[in-house]
Each structure stands twice: as structure tokens, then as C-alpha cells.
Amino acid sequence: MLMEITALRARLTDLEEENLSLKKQIRKEVQEEYEALVQALFMTCLHIKEQLDEHQLHLIQKVCELIGEVRAEGIASIKKLKKTRGSARPAEGGNKTPAQESIQSQKECLGIKLMAEQEVSLLRQQLLAVRQVLARAQADNTRLRKQQETQAQLLRELEHRVTQESVTRQQLDVIKTSRMEKLLEDVEQKGQQLQLLTEEAERASKLGQLQRKKLGRELRQVSPGERDPRGQRSQL
């Protein structure tokens, strides 16, 4: 019984050490996994942010290029019209009648109106191109924001899962600890029972020895009295 209790106590000590080592290992693994996942999500979000910034810069450059191209085309068209109008004036030469001047003025007004309409058309084309680029930029921004929100949601779910796993492990630790405490109590109770049994056995052994000694004394006291009658018979 003593050997069994000693073995149980040794086993309990081993289990406590094993449990402590296992808890440390689990905490370390969970911490490493959590840090690695957080780092990966952070790097992913940072990469998405860099892509978004680069994309916005590229769109701004593209819009500037489109504006420059449209403006250059408009300026070239205006210069061409001015050159055409300027080259037409010297060819006319001489004095002009009021009717001719009126016609010339009408032509000039028509040319100016035409240039204005062309410039308005170019500006409208430019505005349309800018709106299209901005629409694409807004769509890309919306997509990237959704991607960032998804990454953030994954991070929150990961934190929740790690928290739940930590709580579950704590509950398991509490259960293991309570079981170990119960086992220790059982061992103590068995030890106490063994001590009581040992004491009772010792008392019974001492009592038996006393009874045997008493019986021996009584037998020794009775034996001489029994031998005298037999001696008297032999003499008769």
C-alpha cells in the first residue's frame, strides 16, 4: 500500500510538471502563430495600401497626360484656324466695300464661333475622359477598401478564435487541476486509511502478545498443581 501511494504521488508530480510544460508550450505556440498571422495580415494591408497609393498616383498622372493631350490638340486646332484666317486676309488685298467688310466680319464671327465650338467640344471630351478615369479610380478604391475590410474582418475573427482557444485551454487547465487535486486528496485519504490500519494492526499485535504472555503465565501457574495429585497416587 505504501509503495502504491508513493507511486501515485510520483505520478502526480510528473503530471503536474508535464501539465506545466504543456501549458508553456501551448502558450508559446499560440503566441507565435498569432504574431505570425497578425504580421502577415499587417503586411498584406500595407501592401494593399501601397498598391492603392501607386494606383491613385498613376491615375492622376494619366489624367494629367490626357488633359495635356486634349489641351495640346485644342491649341493646335486654334493655331491652325488662326493661321488659315491670317493667310486669307492678305490674299484679299485692296480696299473693301462695306458689304465686303460685313461679309468679312461675318466670316470672322463664324470662324470665332467655330473655334469656340471646337474648344467647347474639346473641353467636353476632356471632361468626359476625366470623369471616366475618376469612375475607374472610384471603382478601384471601392474594391481595395472591401479587400481591406475583408482583411480586417479576418484579423478580428482570428483574435476572437485565439481568445476562445485561450479560454478553452484555461478551462481545461482548471479541469486538470481539479482532477489532480482530487487525486491528491484520494492519495491523502488512502495514506490516512493506511496509517489507521497500521496503527490498528500494531495495537492488535501488541494485544495478542499480551494475551499470549498472560496465557503462558496462567499455564505455568496451573501446571504444578496438576502434578501433585499424580504424585500422591503413585505413592499409594
Structure description:
- This protein is mostly helical and 236 residues long.
- It has a domain at 2-88 and 133-181.
- The protein is 97% helix and 0% strand.
- The chain starts with a helix and ends with a helix.
- Residues 90-94 and 229-236 have low confidence and may be disordered.
- It comes from Jaculus jaculus (Lesser Egyptian jerboa).
- Residues 216-236 have a biased composition (Basic and acidic residues).
- Residues 5-32, 141-207 form a coiled coil.
How many runs of DSSP E, i.e. beta strands? Answer: 0
List SSEs in N-to-C order: HH
* DSSP strand content: under 5%
Query: What is the SS-derived class?
Result: mainly alpha
The biggest sheet amounts to: none
The number of distinct helices, counting runs of at least 4 residues, comes to: 2
Uncertain regions spanning at least 5 consecutive residues = 90-94, 229-236
Global outline: rod-shaped
Distance between the termini: 65 Å
User: Percent of residues in helical segments?
Assistant: over 70%
Task: Give me the Rg, rounded.
Answer: 55 Å
> What do the pLDDT scores average to?
72
What keywords describe this structure?
236 residues; mainly alpha; 2 helices; rod-shaped; disordered C terminus
